[in-house]
Design a protein that fits this description.
- The complex is a heterodimer of chains A (about 190) and B (about 190).
- With about 190 residues, chain A is mainly alpha-helical.
- Chain A contains nine helices and no strands.
- Chain A starts with 9 loop residues before the first helix and ends with a helix.
- Chain B is mainly alpha-helical.
- Chain B contains nine helices and no strands.
- In chain B, helix 2 packs across helix 3, helix 3 packs across helix 4 and helix 5 packs across helix 8.
- Classes of the chains: A mainly alpha (about 190), B mainly alpha (about 190).
- Chains A and B meet through helix 3, helix 4 and helix 9 of A and helix 3, helix 4, helix 6, helix 7 and helix 9 of B.
Chain lengths: ~190, ~190
């Protein structure tokens, strides 16, 4: 049992913010201490008195209040600058994608013809399924190596284009979803 | 089920996340949920019912602009009440009153005529006593006495340790006991 007065704990006691053990100790102390009991009663009286100050009357209905808030809102929530830059970069991502696609196509062209033909290297080094067919096709089709190089390049070019198209569709879908959400939100 | 009705089942964190992506209907729902509380906090901090709704709207606009800083692991209520307290204090600073607020002897505008004179007098005294408290202590008292926040929620709202909440609350109640001694039952 506490022997000292507990006045400094009364606020927390009344607010139910003490541990169960402390709460119990204070309950026990109050049974034997008239002075602290009086302090608790004063605390209760103060709480009741504070309730005499009523809440403000509603000047506008909830619907009107919400509409007024909405009218004052900027178009979008504030964003930190790094996120704003990221969003701007994402908006122009297709330009970067197009540049990478063009660079890839040019690189393929160089690899296919300059590497295979001008450097006089076998087409197989360029990789691809058409190079593997050379042992059989060379006898059947004259100029097969050049054709195989072209077909290899075309296949890789188509593959690169498909990847670029897939990435673009993903970007387009994200923009469409964002636009749809904004439209729903008014 | 309408979009608004569906949003009523969402948690605050879900609504805040949707609002951050620009969904204004989700933010409207948050405004509906906390309108009364925010107006109440602003009113108790400023004592001016005319200012209360205006500053409460300002608080919601600030909340919208700063949604990126809201951590969904914390209660939205604490976070928006903190903004409300700052909005109220900013509004008071901008007003530059000719006389000290706590010395004003205006009738409490929220009191309806049928209230007894005694009740009006008590409400006026409480209002003056609360408004005379230092802002830091007043904020803690308002959140505890009028909004029913726990010490942990108040600590989160005001970004102070729980021990400071306890000491400020105790300090505020001591001051109120002195200033309202004539109204406290013995």
């Amino acid at each position: 049992m506490m022997n000292r007065h507990i006045k400094n704990l009364i606020s927390a006691y009344m607010d139910g913010e003490l541990s169960p053990r402390q709460q119990l100790q204070i309950d026990e102390h109050l049974e034997s201490c008239a002075e602290c009991r009086q302090a608790v009663e004063q605390e209760q009286s103060l709480s009741s008195l504070l309730a005499a100050w009523p809440a403000p009357p509603a000047r506008t209905s909830p619907a009107v209040f919400t509409s007024q808030v909405r009218l004052r809102l900027p178009r979008t929530p504030f964003e930190p600058s790094w996120r704003r830059h990221l969003r701007t970069a994402w908006r122009y991502a297709p330009l970067g994608l197009a540049a990478m696609w063009a660079f890839g196509q040019a690189a393929l062209l160089v690899l296919t013809f300059a590497w295979a033909a001008q450097l006089n290297l076998p087409v197989e080094l360029g990789g691809g399924v058409f190079g593997l067919l050379s042992p059989w096709m060379e006898g059947i089709l004259p100029g097969w190596e050049l054709l195989a190089a072209g077909l290899n390049g075309l296949t890789l070019s188509l593959g690169l284009s498909l990847v670029a198209a897939g990435l673009f569709m993903g970007w387009f879908a994200s923009q469409w979803i964002a636009h749809k959400n904004n439209s729903l939100g008014g | 089920m309408t979009v608004t009705a569906a949003l009523q089942g969402w948690t605050d964190a879900e609504l805040a996340a949707a609002s951050l992506s620009g969904d204004r209907q989700a933010f409207d729902e948050l405004v509906c949920r906390y309108r009364a509380g925010v107006v109440g906090v602003v009113y108790r901090m400023s004592g001016d019912p005319n200012l209360a709704e205006e500053a409460a709207q300002e608080a919601f606009v600030r909340a919208w602009q700063n949604l990126h800083s809201y951590k969904t692991s914390h209660p939205f209520r604490s976070w928006v009440y903190r903004i409300a307290i700052n909005a109220a204090l900013d509004s008071l600073r901008q007003q530059t009153p000719l006389v000290e607020l706590e010395n004003l002897d205006l009738p409490s505008p929220e009191i309806v005529p049928e209230d007894s004179l005694e009740e009006q007098e008590r409400a006026r005294a409480v209002r003056q006593a609360v408004l005379a408290l230092p802002a830091a202590s007043r904020a803690v008292l308002v959140l505890r006495e009028y909004e029913g926040l726990t010490y942990a929620e108040i600590a989160a709202a005001l970004d102070i340790p729980s021990g400071t909440v306890m000491s400020r609350l105790s300090y505020a109640r001591n001051l109120l006991r002195q200033s309202l001694a004539a109204y406290l039952e013995t």
